[in-house]
Amino acid sequence: MPPEATAAIRAPFGERLAAARSTRGSLCVGIDPHPGLLDAWGLEDSPAGLERFSLTVLEAVGPVAAALKPQVALYERHGARGLAVLETLLARAADAGVLTIADAKRGDIGSTMQAYAEAWLGEGRPLAADAVTLNPYLGFESLRPALDLAAATGRGVFVLALTSNPEGRSVQHVGGDASVARSIARAAAAENAGPGPGQVGLVIGATVGDAAQRLGLDLPSLNGPVLAPGVGAQGAGRRELEAAFGAALPFVLPTSSRAVLAAGPDTAALRAEAERTRDGLA
Ligand SMILES: O=C(O)c1cc(=O)[nH]c(=O)n1[C@@H]1O[C@H](COP(=O)(O)O)[C@@H](O)[C@H]1O
């Protein structure tokens, strides 16, 4: 057994997320250090600017969010030094008891997927977060190494089902009752068959309207969390979340990046904006 799959040293992700939501409320804040935001904060578009931005968000928003979701592309564009900043952010968040979801949207054939799983979920790996986003385009079962490693290490995954962008429909909605999105949701639910809240979540954008109901996704039987990006900059708010999820809203973790981040760099203003967003969606 590889070192990444040693016995879990933490409670299962589903339980840890539920605990964070009950104490800090149900908002995930994305850390997306776009060059324009760095500029608006008076920071350079450089690894140093990235680090200042990331640690400020952690300090200001960590205590009032269920989780933070760094978008890894914004770190990758700075190369090795950008990824070093991401490592620092993930380590500091872990020290502060703040859950992290690495938004990496990984997916590949099984042998390569094993390496992605180890990179983002493996015990002792520098980029391991509490959870990672996964892309099931190569087939849900291609994600098996990540599903198994998450279960073994008390970490989680969020599998793309209905994404917030309009182009997603051309793949995810196809097939009516036998849509790709529905098959992904069913496969995720099968992974969460235990008694506690499961560690396999779905990504369903807050902007998708009634697509989840129309395509027959049975979210209450998922027994896992639903990450719902699209709040704020992409136009969704409380009304759109209700339209998208209805009675399944308690399982949903609304997610906002740019709209909250724009309130910085002042930490008090940033925290107040995160709280205002969170409370406005509750
Ligand atoms: O997986 C994601 O986080 C994600 C899925 C999706 O369907 N739509 C979506 O916008 N996202 C991510 O969520 C973030 C949204 O950012 P804002 O539009 O600034 O709130 C970006 O990092 C996206 O990559």
Could you characterize what this model shows?
The chain has helices at 13-24, 35-40, 47-61, 73-76, 79-95, 110-121, 144-153, 169-172, 180-191, 211-214, 238-245, 258-261, 267-281; strands at residues 28-31, 67-70, 101-106, 131-134, 156-162, 200-204, 226-229, 252-256. With 282 residues, the chain is an alpha/beta fold. The protein has a single domain (3-281), classed as Aldolase class I (TIM Barrel), CATH 3.20.20. The protein has an eight-stranded parallel sheet. It is globular and about 50 Å long. Orotidine-5'-monophosphate binds next to β8. It catalyses: orotidine 5'-phosphate + H(+) = UMP + CO2. Keywords: Decarboxylase, Lyase, Pyrimidine biosynthesis. This is Orotidine 5'-phosphate decarboxylase.
Quick take:
The chain is α/β, with parallel strands linked by helices and 282 residues long.
